[in-house]
Amino acid sequence: MSFSKMPLVEANQALDASSLSLDSERTLYPYVTGTSVVAFKYRDGILMAADMGGSYGSTLRYKTVERIKPIGKHSLLGASGEISDFQEILRYLDELILYDNMWDDGNSLGPKEVHNYLTRVMYNRRNKFNPLWNSLVLGGVKNGQKYLGMVSMIGVNFEDNHVATGFGNHLARPILRDEWNEDLSFEDGVKLLEKCMRVLLYRDRSAVNKLQIAKITEEGATLFPPYSLKTFWGFEAYKNPTVGAEGSW
Amino acid sequence: MTKQQANWSPYDNNGGSCVAIAGRDYCVIAADTRMSTGYSILTRDYSKISKLADKAVLASSGFQADIKALQKHLAARHLIYQHQHNKQMSCPAMAQLLSNTLYYKRFFPYYAFNVLGGLDSEGKGCVFTYDAVGSYERVGYSAQGSGSTLIMPFLDNQLKSPSPLLLPAQDAVTPLSELEAIDLVKTVFVSATERDIYTGDKVEIVILNAEGLRREFMDLRKD
């Protein structure tokens, strides 16, 4: 018996992902990113806010990115992280809602179902080491039941009365833990959201002063036109910055 | 050009502690309800306890996404078992299934630290304790998760388990009454909450006995 004399090196070389150039198709790091999303339950449903910035590293490249979108009849989806992955998720959800509508059976996917679907999608992508680089906030109302949940890029998910992504977890959640209550009116809710977004604007370098507020109630979703928050910079310490350092400017 | 390294980890530790104590005719399974990531608290009201079968209750701590997937997987397998055998899975059977499920992912593990509690076919309390890849043993009591190093020595002190090396084998189940065991569990969680930052908010206690399943909650320190 004689075996053909193949060069042993080539015969033994395993075809790994990088040599098949499958690696270049995997997400390694995010490019265009959105920052925090903040949301909480209020009397009539869910209130959600996100600014309209899309950062390219440290450059505030895009300033009219809608990071909150309505999903079906009963839900709102807010996303932080890679914007292109968010757009991909919207395509997945489009198909999901389309197939749901095609049953034409009077039934429709509620926020709990959409949240579960998103959790499975995110977890499965993480299992394949090709994550969708987003933190998602899913809120909605169906049959009087309010629902608000969050999913991270590795599939960690939970529901609560108030949620936030990214910096919002550190800066907005403490405010919400202190001042949120079950029966917020719409006006009070917006004031509370603005309070959180203002802190984020002051302290998160990737925040832009152009925010979008959205609400969802039993009647449906409403995305309000974008606007800016009033900020205050007139602190004594900022007025004469060189007073303690003669010769500086 | 060196190959790009991943700058994200597929794992996270969402913290929390789980405890189970087996009694003569009951089993107590408890876990705190705090879910954390890094130094932040994500939510104060997340249950780590899942009822897999009438007589088998699982408490898991670790990476929440893996735990959710694991619990869903086991629930699905139990449903199939019920269809095929027309009965509920016993606790020892579920214990074996959990071990096999964990080992199946030996080379990309479920980052889940489990304690399975329930009643065996004689109605006696049983507790099974696991590591992340499925190695398990039946014990009289166990603690897993971020507070386990604080809790386990205390349980050893209070429940003084006989050595598994003894011949004839001695029963590991505690002679404590159900109410005494619940009290011990509450004490243990209060203590763990003091020193473990990932344990706190609330403790959920599930008690399984001949009458069925009962659930209790107790507030813990929120800091």
Automatic annotation (TrEMBL), chain A:
The keyword Cytoplasm applies. The keyword Lyase does not apply. It is found in: Cytoplasm; Nucleus. Signal peptide: none annotated. InterPro entries: Ntn_hydrolases_N, Proteasome_alpha, Proteasome_beta4, Proteasome_bsu_CS, Proteasome_sua/b, Proteasome_suB-type. It comes from the Eukaryota. One of its GO terms (cellular component) is proteasome core complex, beta-subunit complex. SUPFAM superfamilies: N-terminal nucleophile aminohydrolases (Ntn hydrolases). It holds the Pfam family Proteasome. This is Proteasome subunit beta.
TrEMBL record, chain B:
Signal peptide: none annotated. It is found in: Cytoplasm; Nucleus. The keyword Transmembrane helix does not apply. Gene3D superfamilies: Glutamine Phosphoribosylpyrophosphate, subunit 1, domain 1 (3.60.20.10). Its main location: cytoplasm. Keywords: Cytoplasm, Nucleus, Proteasome. The keyword Repeat does not apply. CDD domains: proteasome_beta_type_1. One of its GO terms (cellular component) is cytoplasm. PROSITE patterns: PROTEASOME_BETA_1 (PS00854), PROTEASOME_BETA_2 (PS51476). Transmembrane segments: none annotated. Non-catalytic component of the proteasome, a multicatalytic proteinase complex which is characterized by its ability to cleave peptides with Arg, Phe, Tyr, Leu, and Glu adjacent to the leaving group at neutral or slightly basic pH. The proteasome has an ATP-dependent proteolytic activity. Component of the 20S core complex of the 26S proteasome. The 26S proteasome is composed of a core protease (CP), known as the 20S proteasome, capped at one or both ends by the 19S regulatory particle (RP/PA700). The 20S proteasome core is composed of 28 subunits that are arranged in four stacked rings, resulting in a barrel-shaped structure. The two end rings are each formed by seven alpha subunits, and the two central rings are each formed by seven beta subunits. The catalytic chamber with the active sites is on the inside of the barrel. Belongs to the peptidase T1B family. This is Proteasome subunit beta. It comes from Eucalyptus globulus (Tasmanian blue gum).
